[in-house]
Every structure is written in structure tokens, then in C-alpha cells.
Design a protein that fits this description.
Elements (H helix, E strand, L loop, with lengths): L1 E9 L3 H19 L2 E6 L4 H7 L5 H8 L3 E6 L14 H11 L4 E7 L20 E7 L11 E5 L2 E5 L6 H16 L4 E6 L5 H14 L6 E6 H10 L6 E4 L1 H14 L7 E5 L5 E5 L16 H13 L4 H16 L2 E2 L9 E2 L2 H10 L2
Helix pairs in contact: 1-9, 1-11, 5-6, 7-8, 9-10, 10-11
Bound molecules: 3-isopropylmalic acid and magnesium ion (MG).
């Protein structure tokens, strides 16, 4: 197979982790007789520095011309004081919108080898954690109009709008039901229907879609309760589907309780066209350029890419198995280090995985 991949290393640790992931992908491609062609594009802070724009048109064009996009991370203190529409984050939001990536899949899994790093009590996680958060990514309060500032009764005021239309809810619900069908067939839709009108529509539409998936056990939960249940008993969840803002928050929570946010990949998908694959963690400016970052989330994002963009599940498994072997052999980057294990840097971690492909 011929794969055209657009790389967007971005800011902070982005370049070093993407470099390791590319090396692993090349190794897999070599082994299975695929060819990979790379293009590279600017996004986030590096794009602001070079072009004054966090998402240059050229970047959108390069992404659209690719079969899949690999992103490192965006953002850092250098750009934190810029106005909202010029911040690095705007690049990420813009590319999601430009590529129509309405679904964000964020699997939160407890790796048995890293169970000591888990933040929850052993009796709570004795059956592990394996939750897939499906977050709506191009709608809701992140993009709703109107948005702005004005002066009300002589006081500065600001507003955003949380809005979903039924089609936006239907397509993310369908995708979540499909994901549940491939897993344990349990779907929990998270909303705030006791307060928000938009959540009441969300719930209504999810119920309608549920009729197409009689095998899936559907439940609903308010977001505050869901935040609590995730730490109380994470194993009650299989797939969670929720809107953009709640999904932003819950996916970080689900990821961090595993104790290995540096390990978790994600995929953002649209109805057609290239998807975007990226680690869940951010740009970690404090350790950037020091060969300390954990490249495994980005490497595992390559596995997700092979599976979702190219339907190459065998190749994906080879990567996942290689990562697991490296962990079993006791190698750790700083973020997942425990006593008695071997501390390695970003490059070495990448090499260790590549050697086991
Ligand atoms: C994420 C991030 C982004 C978001 C930021 C960087 C705009 O937190 O991917 O979860 O809020 O979606
Ligand atoms: Mg987030």
C-alpha cells in the first residue's frame, strides 16, 4: 500500500515525539512492504512564528492532500499572551473544522505493566480500565454563534453559545454506537439534560439513533455524575459519547486516572477524507528538546492511524505488541518511571520499539 502522510510536529515536545513515531512507521512499512510518502506542515506556535498565522492555508491544503495527518502538539508559554484568535490552539481548532473531523476517539486504557502508576486504589481497578471516550469535535460551545463581548449595564460581559443541531448529534451518536458494537456493546451518553436545552435535544436524538442498534445497551448520565463515576468505578463504562466541552474534560479525566497520559493516542475522524492522529497529552514545554518526552502515545497514534485510515490491523497490532514488550522488559521514560525500572530518553524509547517491530 502507498500511504501519503502529512506530519505536523507543532510545538514543544512535538518534533521529538513525531520523529520517533515516523521511525517506527517506516520500520513497519518496510516489514510489510508498504511505502510511505511524507509531507510536513506548520501548525500552532511554530506557524505563528513563521507566518503570523496558527493555521496557514498551505497547511490546510497539505492536510487535505494526504491520506492521514499525524500531529505532535501545539502551544506553549511563548504564545500564551496572544489574543484568542491568534493563539496556537486556534490552529488545532481550525484544522479540525477544515477537515470536518467531528468525532474524536480517545481510548483510556490501563496498561497492566503500569498499574502502579494508576491514580486509583487497586481494589477499584482490579478489572482494569478500558474506556473509549467519543467526543463531538466540531460543534457545541467551541464553535457556536454568537460569541463575543459587550458591555451590559455598564459591566464588561462575554458570551459563548452551546448549540447542536439534530444532524450533528445523530452522526456522532451513530459513530459511537458503531464503536460500541466493536467493543462490549455498552454506550453511555453524557449530557446535562437536567439544566441545558441543548442536552435535552442531544438525549432525544441519541434515543432515536439507539433504535438502529438494539444490541447496544444505552444509558444516559449527567456530566457531573459521570466525572464522579469515572473515578469511583471506571469499569462500569465501555464507550462514552458526549459533546465537545464535556468530552474535552472527561477525556482528560479518563486518561489521567490510568496514570499514563503519556501513553494514550487519539484519532479524529470525519465522514470522509483524512483523519488526524495525535497523542492525548500536550506540548510539555518544560521538557521540550531535552530528550525526556515519552514518544509512546504518538507511536500508538500511528497504530490507530494504520487501523482507521488504512484498515491495516495486523500492522497496528505489531506496533502495540512492540510497545507492550518494551514495557514488559522494564524500560520507562520519566513520566512513567518506577523504582527498579530502566530510565530511558525519548530517542532510546523510540529505538527500542522500532527494534521490536
Ligand atoms: C484537546 C485540547 C484542545 C481542546 C485545546 C488545545 C484547544 O485541550 O485536544 O483536548 O480543547 O480541544
Ligand atoms: Mg483537552
Amino acid at each position: 500500500m502507498k500511504m501519503k502522510i502529512c506530519l505536523m510536529p507543532g510545538d514543544g515536545i512535538g518534533p521529538e515525539i513525531v520523529e520517533q513515531a515516523v521511525m517506527v512507521l517506516d520500520k513497519v512499512a518496510d516489514k510489510f512492504g508498504h511505502t510511505v510518502e511524507y509531507t510536513e506542515a506548520l501548525i500552532g506556535g511554530v506557524a505563528i512564528d513563521a507566518t503570523k498565522n496558527p493555521l496557514p492555508d498551505e497547511t490546510v491544503a497539505k492536510c487535505k492532500a494526504a491520506d492521514a495527518v499525524l500531529l505532535g502538539a501545539v502551544g506553549g508559554p511563548k504564545w500564551d499572551t496572544l489574543p484568542g484568535d491568534q493563539r496556537p490552539e486556534k490552529g488545532l481548532l481550525g484544522i479540525r473544522k477544515a477537515l470536518g473531523l467531528f468525532a474524536n476517539l480517545r481510548p483510556a486504557k490501563l496498561f497492566p505493566e503500569l498499574s502502579k502508576a494508576c491514580f486509583l486504589r487497586p481494589d477499584i481497578v482490579q478489572d482494569g480500565i478500558d474506556v473509549m471516550v467519543v467526543r463531538e469535535l466540531t460543534g457545541g460551545i467551541y464553535f457556536g454563534q454568537p460569541v463575543g463581548r459587550d458591555v451590559r449595564d455598564g459591566k464588561r460581559a462575554a458570551f459563548n453559545t452551546m448549540v447542536y443541531d439534530e444532524e450533528e448529534v445523530r452522526r456522532i451518536a451513530r459513530l459511537a454506537f458503531e464503536a460500541a458494537m466493536k467493543r462490549e456493546k455498552r454506550l453511555c451518553s453524557v449530557d446535562k439534560a437536567n439544566v441545558l436545552e441543548v442536552s435535552r435535544l442531544w438525549r432525544e436524538v441519541v434515543e432515536e439513533v439507539a433504535k438502529e442498534y438494539p444490541e447496544v445497551e444505552l444509558s444516559h448520565m449527567y456530566v457531573d455524575n459521570a466525572a464522579m463515576q469515572l473515578v469511583r468505578n471506571p469499569n462500569q463504562f465501555d464507550v462514552i459519547v458526549t459533546g465537545n466541552l464535556f468530552g474535552d474534560i472527561l477525556s482528560d479525566e479518563a486518561a489521567v486516572i490510568t496514570g499514563s497520559i503519556g501513553m494514550l493516542p487519539s484519532a479524529s475522524l470525519g465522514a470522509s477524507g483524512p483523519g488526524l492522529y495525535e497523542p492525548i497529552h500536550g506540548s510539555a514545554p518544560d521538557i521540550a528538546g531535552q530528550n525526556k518526552a515519552n514518544p509512546l502515545a504518538t507511536i500508538l497514534s500511528i497504530a490507530m492511524m494504520l487501523r482507521y485510515a488504512f484498515d491495516l490491523s495486523k500492522e497496528a497490532e505489531v506496533i502495540e505488541t512492540a510497545v507492550q514488550k518494551v514495557l514488559q522488559e522494564g524500560y520507562r521514560t520519566g513520566d512513567i518511571m518506577e523504582e527498579g525500572k530502566s530510565l530511558v530518553g525519548c530517542n532510546t524509547m523510540g529505538n527500542l520499539v522500532a527494534e521490536r517491530i
